[in-house]
Amino acid sequence: ETLRLLTWGSYAPDVLVQKFEEEYPDIDVEVTFSNNEEMIAKLRATGGAGFDLAQPSHDRIYAAQLEYDIYKPLDLSKINTDVLEAKLLAGVKENTTIDGEVYAVPHQWGTSGLMAEKTMAPDFSSWADLCDPQYAGKTSMRLKRTILLGTAFSMGENPFEAYSDLEKYQDILDKVADKLIECKANIKAYWKGGDDLSAMMLSGEIVASETWDSTAYKLFDQNENIVFIPPKEGALAWIDTFALPRKAKADDAAYKWINFVLRPENVTLMSGSTGAIAAVQGGKDLLPEDKKAAVNAAFTDADIDNLKFFANIPPGVEDMEGKTLEKIKAATGG
Amino acid sequence: MQKDIKRLSLILLFAPFTLWILLLVVLPHIGMVILSLREKVAPRVYEFGFGNYLEFLHEPIYWNTLIRTGSMSLLVTALALIIGFPIAYYIAKIAGPRARGGLFLLCLIPLWVSDLIRSFGWILLLRETGVISSFLVWTGLIGTPVEFLYNDAAVIVGLVYTVILFMIVPLVSTLDGMDNSMIEAGYNLGGNGFTVLRRIIIPYAMPGIVAGCIVTFMLTAGSYLTPILLGGKNSSWFTEQIYNQFITRFNWEGGAAFGMLLLLFTSLVIWLGLKLSGQTLANTVAKS
Amino acid sequence: MLAQNKTTPFLLGYRLYVVTFFIFLAAPLISAGAFAFNDSLFPALPWQGFTLDWFFGDTEPKLGMFHDRRLLQGLYYSFVIAIFVAALSVFVGTTNAFLFVRGDFPAKNFFYIMMVVPLVIPGVILGISILVLASDTANMMERRFAIELEFLRPGILLVVLGQFSFIATITSLVITARLKKFDETMEEAAYNLGASRARVLRTITLPFLRPAMIAAGIVAFLVSFENFNTTLFLVGSEAPLTITMYDRMAKVGSTPVLNAVSFFLMVGSGLLALMSVLIQRDKTAR
Amino acid sequence: MKHTPTYDLECQDLAKNFGSFRAVKGVSFDIPSGSFFSILGPSGCGKTTLMRMIAGFEDPSGGDIRIKGKSVLGTPPNKRNVKMVFQHLALFPMMNVYENIAYGLRCNGVSSAEIKRKVHDVLERIALPDVAEREIHQLSGGQKQRIAIARCMVLDPDVLLLDEPLGALDLKLREAMKIELKLLQHQFNTTFIYITHDQSEALVMSDNVAIMNQGEFEQIGTPQELYHHPKTAFVAGFVGDSNRWSGTVTSSDGTGGQVETDQGLPMTFSAAGGTKINEGSKVDIFVRPEFIHAIRANGANKSSADGDNRLSGVVDSLLFNGANSRVLVRAQGGELVEADVTLTGNNDIKPGEDVELVWSSRQAMCFAQNGGA
Amino acid sequence: MKHTPTYDLECQDLAKNFGSFRAVKGVSFDIPSGSFFSILGPSGCGKTTLMRMIAGFEDPSGGDIRIKGKSVLGTPPNKRNVKMVFQHLALFPMMNVYENIAYGLRCNGVSSAEIKRKVHDVLERIALPDVAEREIHQLSGGQKQRIAIARCMVLDPDVLLLDEPLGALDLKLREAMKIELKLLQHQFNTTFIYITHDQSEALVMSDNVAIMNQGEFEQIGTPQELYHHPKTAFVAGFVGDSNRWSGTVTSSDGTGGQVETDQGLPMTFSAAGGTKINEGSKVDIFVRPEFIHAIRANGANKSSADGDNRLSGVVDSLLFNGANSRVLVRAQGGELVEADVTLTGNNDIKPGEDVELVWSSRQAMCFAQNGGA
Ligand SMILES: Nc1ncnc2c1ncn2[C@@H]1O[C@H](COP(=O)(O)OP(=O)(O)OP(=O)(O)O)[C@@H](O)[C@H]1O
Ligand SMILES: Nc1ncnc2c1ncn2[C@@H]1O[C@H](COP(=O)(O)OP(=O)(O)OP(=O)(O)O)[C@@H](O)[C@H]1O
Ligand SMILES: NCCCCNCCCN
Ligand SMILES: [Mg+2]
Ligand SMILES: [Mg+2]
């Protein structure tokens, strides 16, 4: 049988896949790389068919399930939940329970924040610094919802609280849009995938950027001066989860995979590939040495306390955000 | 009996054609039209209406992007024609018979790899620390590296590169069919190079030019990867917005409306082009 | 003047322009190909020395393409898809050629234009419209009759159909052009010499069309292999190579292994293109 | 009508309509075994249509076709033992010469060995024993021609149809092939039906020629009969060159008489086509250039030329063409009359000279105009 | 050489090499104003190349071209007042008749009103006053021909070049156009240079003809000169039909003599080309069919035919072609001899009859073989 994974790039490193297949010789693993939006779009188009296990972030499940009915409830008894970090498990369950059924369990978590080349941008600390004229033409960001939220925080707003009042949220978005349009002249380019960001950063074409932490860790490996910086407004934290598509056909294999990747020895391999911290107890300790160093270089305990977990997205917000992003993209800012 | 066989074979031949056009082109587009006329009023609740189209009209971002896509596509088409025509002419009329095949094959080179790899190649060439910039620094022509990527010029270069083949191929085939003595007659009767080009070669090549322009324009307006990968922070492309509607905003209804709008818009441009040049679709695109 | 006197400065300049143009054409391919041999983890300057690891390396981080399961699988799916698309397109292209060259029916011109239209519909829209129709139909069947029609969900079949929807136009045009050149008296001659209708088709008409069918098949194969826009919306879990590479680039980060794949594809397509040219330069083409 | 097997092909009242257009209007003829029969007529007169009916590619709208005495109506083309050489030959370019010739044999299920023997045999007979392995495009025009014939002859057809097979060849080759075709027909001793609009081809090669016009046969006869004794004005005008006048009969005695042409020239004639022509009827008179003698007006042997028609004029121009040279003489009426002359290079007639044109009334063929033929 | 303005075109030692291949090898000729000059030669002999040099499309490798006395070397084609009618006419399909004719005038910056006048004028002169608004594809072959000429003539060229313009036409039309072209040239009174490989075209139309072979002119002369007094064996063979024998001179007196052919036939000849032929030299003898009289062997007036050469044989076949009929006679040696006959329809010679062939030694043109000409 085949286990069709719909997951993030690097969330299924070849070593692990091979190892899994050796352990379960009758299961073939087939991996499709995706992101939150595409996962939803894809599963929507297939009506929840075509994949056996998906890994959306914890905040992107509730609304999508309500609207498109693309997942099926998990059988928690088949998952080795004991190993999971209780706080994260509770948080995810809370976010993804519909009609008493749980639709997701956590896998790994990480943050979105900033990264900077220390020697060139020593004082970088806030989302707003991306728009600092001092770094004109030397910063980058991804034109996705993360930067909208980060900028909102930097403007003193709490967007997550505004989710309950979409009109208010629209006001915030409008302000954020103005700010980011103004900021456009300051940035070099919007990055689209980890790849172009790495290239720009490593080559020195830019000195700072909004980033996933994992990308920053990877670059830290190459250049010790490039570090992840949790913004002072708080890094945005996400938890990528496991969820079963509604028409998944290999549930057993899916559970096997879940339990497999949560095993400590595999967690290290996984984190080595993803740069994210597993949602298992002691997940941080299971990081490979280099990543551990990078995390330690980036985070203080205060930073960890200051994490802002993505809040559940209510229906309609994606559309509002999408339009705002388009507005920013289309504006001619220089 | 002969008649029956004829009728039967006509029906047999019609079947694949009908299945293809009906199931894969006509019905899907009707489906798109229907979808685009559904307004979303609440999760899983829809109403019939023109809201998705009105949304487009009311939001300058969208039609600005459409107009930008259209005008850049026209620019790319024009550039492809201007750059490609001399090449096509060279292949069809000046190169020796043996060189001709070779050059024609060389023209097909961009087709050997996907859009993605082509763009990938351009990125490696154009970026600030890329091959061209480094080369120019090395030669001393420029002092510090220059960013050639992430701007409209890069998009245009990339698009022209991608589509020029579709301009050259129909041009070569029409010019090939042109009797050399027609050009010689043009000179012999007193025309200079310019007159001959304007009054004889270009009018003769018109079906090829129009065919090339149509295909080039459609490919450009419908392209996705090149503008995304090479474009800068201001470079929206309408297909990107369609993609966004579908994928990031989960707004299939809006996306369908946008798709129809792109199709209508490009068809309109082509219709105008055909009217202005006095050609028809059947004697241009279909011939190449 | 444009064609004759062989040594004018004008012609010299013209030649220079042509050479420049072909350099332009080759440049991105050369750069994409060349970095496949750079002994570095990133497809970028500076040049770190020559290596074949990105083809044959069998360990991370320099896992060569021939050991990269995902890429090989993408290659395999691309191949399967392209074969089906080519076969289907050549078949329909051939029946269309007969339909439009030999058939006589009302509104022929209109239908002919309908045949050409898919070529000028943006690929993204073709993909989306087919996706929408297929999933709407599947949803409807599921809701009304509780039947799950899995083949209507994104996957290989939809990708094949999506690509076929416009590639069939290309093959139809190629084969139609060839059939138009066919001298129908050749069929009458064969018939006159005692052949049955089926035999005429088998021994005269199809052999005459064969070069065009092969060439059309190769073009269809290449276009399918490199298609992205239409495939993007229709792909399921079995992703062909372009999608795999795009995901790799946009979601993982590119290493020179992508350049290696590019190089590999260039060589493959180049050989195919050469083959199609050699086939078209056949004895009956004059 | 009784069927004697001496006729390879008989057509009876054969007709073909395309919609309301009558392309062939009830044509009847019989072709004796082993003869060379040509159908000569202007473009569009229905020759090809007639031939395609014989081959089976068109269904007749009426009439009957009998091959070797048996009606073939309803027999599909691939079952008729009538083979055809097409205008552009229709050799199969994807096969070599051997395969082309073997094609029909294979269709008949002949054994390989037999095919081999027959193909080489027929190649010998067309004097091209060595070309079996050549590709079609490696052959010259004349060789292709012969292969196209061989491809049919190897099947031993009852009748071979040839539809303007020389049309695509260049001038010199066409001349040579005319003679060659005739020799090949002798060789194979098969009935050939040859279509052409070139009178010299039809005259040179044929035993019998049918002159076709607007879907009908005007006359069937030997080349000499057609040339010297045309039955209709159309035949007189179409076969060979002629000077043509229209006029009115002023006196007639049944076998000949006197005409005044529309330009006012008096002329004597002999009634052609065997029909008596009444006084006062409008007629067309034809005189062939070779029967008109052009004599210097002040020449010594002026009266020596024999002929009861005389016309004086001025040489307008001289069309030198070796043995086929001709003068254009402007007669008093202002019109041009063509006369053949032999130019030897010394003391020839020159433009501007006054000449007397002389011809015999026996050579002046006269036809009554009926309607506007 | 002095330039008198009576020559519209002079070429001197004109040569053209393509790489190492010498397509034209130093050709010299002068063409008097207003004459019709043809260049006749087999395919590939360099005719088109020569013409393209005159028009300016090829640069000569050597020699000079003078138009109206002035060298045009270095003058680009669009500045030469030499217009050209192309083999396939090269009418512009995207323009109508009016625009085609007006094209050259527009290039010269002539005013609209003037253009209109001139175009209509020239259309009158070619007798097609009403076709101005037609599209090219609506014209018949002959009309196209005339438009192509009009398009050039409206520009009043010093010389009009025509490269096998009749090649693409069908037989009947070609015959008609031959005479028409000649009349048009009279009309416009412009120098025409006409290229062809069809001898009858060249002979009928031209004032002077140059016979070209392998890049060289073999002979220039009037059609009659070429036909009756060829200077070389090539000309004798190429112009007009001939019977040709090879043989060895057994006796010679400078103006003629005795030859024994390779088949063993004795024959008397007159030396052609004006050169004495020595005893023992290998020669080619040409006798035109129209100078050979075929007489029934047992006929009454057997001895009446005048001629010092006699040959007996059997009529092999009879090629009836009206006025141009011919017999093929198999001589004792076994080879076929062609002789023209006039067939009147009564008591004509028939295949199988014994005949005597008689011709005069004055008509037996004899050329020494040099090398292998
Ligand atoms: N399939 C058809 N439908 C309608 N009309 C036809 C068809 N085939 C031939 N005709 C008409 O019938 C007439 C005779 O045609 P046909 O081809 O027999 O002439 P032809 O004597 O062979 O002429 P040519 O010498 O030009 O070949 C023509 O007027 C032609 O237009
Ligand atoms: N551009 C060229 N390059 C090389 N050889 C050439 C070129 N043009 C002509 N030739 C050669 O020069 C010779 C003369 O050619 P040309 O076209 O003048 O012949 P032609 O007498 O016009 O023949 P035809 O009657 O067939 O038109 C031919 O052998 C031809 O192959
Ligand atoms: N907005 C949620 C972002 C989730 C990111 N997952 C990142 C994986 C990166 N390799
Ligand atoms: Mg015909
Ligand atoms: Mg030529």
UniProtKB/TrEMBL annotation, chain B:
Compartments (UniProt record): Cell membrane
ABC transmembrane type-1 domain mapped to chain residues: 66-273
Top-level taxon in the UniProt lineage: Bacteria
InterPro entries membership: MetI-like, MetI-like_sf
Keyword annotations from UniProtKB, A to Z: Cell membrane, Membrane, Transmembrane, Transmembrane helix, Transport
Parts of the chain that traverse the membrane: 12-37, 72-91, 103-125, 153-172, 208-230, 250-274
Bilayer topology term: Multi-pass membrane protein
CDD domains xrefs: TM_PBP2
UniProt feature coiled coil, ranges: none
Major place of residence: membrane
UniProt cross-references to PANTHER family, sorted A to Z: INNER MEMBRANE ABC TRANSPORTER PERMEASE PROTEIN YDCU-RELATED, INNER MEMBRANE ABC TRANSPORTER PERMEASE PROTEIN YDCU-RELATED-RELATED
Family assignment from sequence similarity: Belongs to the binding-protein-dependent transport system permease family. CysTW subfamily.
Name the UniProt record assigns to this protein: Spermidine/putrescine transport system permease protein
Taxonomic source organism: Roseibium denhamense
Origin organism lineage: Bacteria, Pseudomonadati, Pseudomonadota, Alphaproteobacteria, Hyphomicrobiales
From TrEMBL, chain C:
Domain (ABC transmembrane type-1) ranges: 75-276
Bilayer-crossing regions: 12-37, 75-99, 111-135, 155-179, 200-225, 257-279
Stored SUPFAM superfamilies: MetI-like (SSF161098)
Keyword Secreted: no
Entry similarity comment: Belongs to the binding-protein-dependent transport system permease family. CysTW subfamily.
Gene3D superfamilies named among the record's database cross-references: MetI-like
Keywords: Cell membrane, Membrane, Transmembrane, Transmembrane helix, Transport
Topology versus the membrane: Multi-pass membrane protein
PROSITE patterns: ABC_TM1
Native source organism of the sequence: Roseibium denhamense
Protein name (record): Spermidine/putrescine transport system permease protein
From TrEMBL, chains D, E:
Presence of the UniProt keyword Ubl conjugation in the record: no
Protein family according to the UniProt entry: Belongs to the ABC transporter superfamily.
Transmembrane domains' residue ranges: none
The UniProt record lists the keyword Nucleotide-binding: yes
Protein known as: Spermidine/putrescine transport system ATP-binding protein
Molecular function terms from GO: ATP binding
Keyword terms: ATP-binding, Nucleotide-binding, Transport
ABC transporter domain span: 9-239
